[in-house]
Amino acid sequence: MAGVELLSDQGYRLDGRKATELRKVQARMGVFAQADGSAYIEQGNTKALAVVYGPHEMRGSRSRTLHDRAVINCQYSMATFSTAERKRRPHGDRKSTEMTLHLKQTFEAAVMTQLYPRSQIDIYVKILQSDGGNYSVCVNAATLAVIDAGIPMRDYVCACTVGFVDETPLADLCHAEESGGGSSLALALLPRGGQIALLQMDARLHQDHLETLIEAAMTACKGVSKVLDEVVRQHLEEVSVLTGE
Asked: Is the backbone of residue 154 left (phi > 0), alpha (psi -120 to 50) or beta?
């Protein structure tokens, strides 16, 4: 990315956004009739599909059963056509396994699993088009799918990826900004209580900048939560019209 100016002197980014501006978010709930819950989301040019099954009885090894809460089973994958590289992406590669674990940890902090002891909740997320912020977009899609499934959550769990360029925090990074060589941070937040569900950093960052970056990420997550709330309310209105309630 040498030679590419990620932030202009006027304060504009490669795609014309201001530093704290989020990418445009479009989402739909209930896109799969066969699943208990589903959602499709576009955040900029990153597109993801999330499907939720459960709560249901434990499948597979009974030794994984938890007697006081539900087990959350997550699976992350990328469509082979989701990036410009047409490399084969085997299921279970290191990146997918890492992302699966991050999603599991995030939703264990948000879903009220204690209401469903000795049960299992399956969350499947697939990236259909990748342009940065894959983890964040997957969390936002899965949140809508869990709500669509009627599974109680402590709060919306919203995620955003932020980076640091020229001493300026940038919210909701695209692929070019993520691969620009600067420090980036992905944060999942339960916005009402300000509880951080997951914080992930892949590069070194001076501790003087950490607080600024976390604040920028939390502000961006609160912006995402407002968008997701609008999507949920719109979906409920559509359902009420269809059911005549």
From this structure: alpha
Describe the strand order of the beta sheet including 195-201 as a list of residue ranges. 168-171, 158-165, 184-190, 195-201
Instruction: Give the count of beta carbons closer than 10 Å to the beta carbon of residue 219.
Output: 15
Two tokens, residue 155? 């709060």
Rounded to an integer, what distance in angstroms lies between the CA atom of residue 99 and that of residue 105? Answer: 10
Distance CA 65, CA 81 (A): 36
* Amino acid 137: pLDDT: 97
Q: How many Cβ atoms sit within 10 Å of the Cβ of residue 61?
A: 7
- Strand pairing category for 71-78 and 119-129: parallel
Best-predicted range by mean pLDDT (13-17, 62-66, 77-81, 101-105): 101-105
Is pLDDT of 3 > 60?
no
DSSP letters, 222-243, are HHHHHHHHHHHHHHHHHHHHHH
Angstrom distance (rounded) from CA 119 to CA 53:
11
Q: What is the pLDDT of residues 164-200, one digit of tens each?
A: 887 889 999 999 888 877 788 999 999 999 999 999 9
Write down how long the chain is.
245
- Whether 176 and 4 have beta carbons less than 8 Å apart is answered as yes
Which residue type, as a one-letter code, is found at position 175? H
Please choose, from the candidates 183, 157, 182, 159, the residue with its C-alpha nearest in 3D space to the C-alpha of residue 172.
Answer: 159
Cα dihedral across residues 243, 111, 194, 212: positive or negative = negative
3-state secondary structure of 51: strand
Q: 232: which residues sit within 8 A by CB, 6+ positions away?
A: 29, 144, 147
